[in-house]
Amino acid sequence: MAKPINMPQVGQDIETGVIVEWRVKENDVVKKGDVVALVESDKATFEVEAYTSGVLLKLLYDEGAEVKVLTPIAYVGEAGESIKEQQEQEKGGNLKAEGFGDGSSQVNHPQAPLEVATQSKKSVISISPSAKRIAREHGIDLSTLQGTGPDGRITKQDVLAAIPGTASGNEAKTMMKALIFDCDGVLADTERDGHRVAFNKAFAAKGLAIEWDVELYGKLLEVSGGKERMKHYFNQSGWPDDVADRDALIKELHKLKTDFFMQIIESGELPLRPGIARIVDEAIAAKMTLAVCSTSHERAVNLVVERLLGPERKAHFSAILAGDVVSKKKPDPEIYNLASQRLSLQPSECVVVEDSRNGLLAAKAAGMHCIVTTNGYTEDEDFAEADLVVPELGDEPNIRVTLEQIKEIVKGSSYEGQIP
After folding, report:
1. Side-chain-facing half-sphere of 306: CA atoms under 13 Å
2. Which domains does the chain have, with CATH numbers?
3. Catalytic residue check, 395
């Protein structure tokens, strides 16, 4: 009997996927594990493999169709085999490939024929899942955009081009005047071997049987701010017994954690990330304004800059904004809006170096350019809006990006996307 190839579900919150490209055609012979399609979800692009060997009997959707997860998109079986019996046995939900419209029983059937999808798709403009997400996060009205994809489909790049400060959509030739750094994960790999260790020491000092391992801490990093991170953890896992004042406990733990973290920094155990000292020196030589914007404790951030960059370099920083200087944490743009005001610069004149999606969204929401240097915790995050994504800034002989290249980004040059 013919067997379906279903739209995969690659995450619990993923509801649909878009068929970007078919890698096979009907009547092709496929083997188990062969890639048959390229699919885009709200968070990633991935390949779909054949579950079994046989002949590709039917492609149920055209390229560009949006299909509910776990719904058949193709059938594999023996040559000449009919898929009608299998389709009748399949009991799907209310499949709605984007662009199908409402009211047609044939369209709402889980295995709507390819030609029907193609016909209806011409009358309704489709939008890719990633385009929807990015538009939602940046407040872009999709009805105002002209799609450049097949049949006028609105793509991720169409939305990126509409975001102020995004290289792919900024035609203005603005001059770069400021280089702004996040602290943790950007200046140094402080998260895993700094803050995580300090949190665990604070828990132990209070007699709490809590230890955040590397994997758990990676998940907790989705919450910006140390106090907020602990509150989130306790809300999910349970608060310690006999805690009369939760806010007081959080403040005490955070103070202990900051003291332990500063001891770690003072020890000199954590080095600067590759390229940080070099790019700061280049910025100083170019008389560029320098700043740091972090959600970490102000004392800790100042110590990282002082200890790791040195007092001479620190003296060239016009602002170090950290801790509770703002009420809202990243991805809210408040700290970068404040930086723009303190530095008396337009957001478009500023370039931010971040390492996480939350930081990227904050910088972009403030209208600034953003370069992302990934680390072990953030390398798999979506940085579609970034002007440039690199694993590190790099030192000789492996320099990834220079100040001159960053200036070109601001002027609207072609340094876009990822550099390996």
Report:
1. 10
2. 3-121 (2.40.50.100), 129-162 (4.10.320.10), 178-188+270-410 (3.40.50.1000), 190-266 (1.10.150.240)
3. no
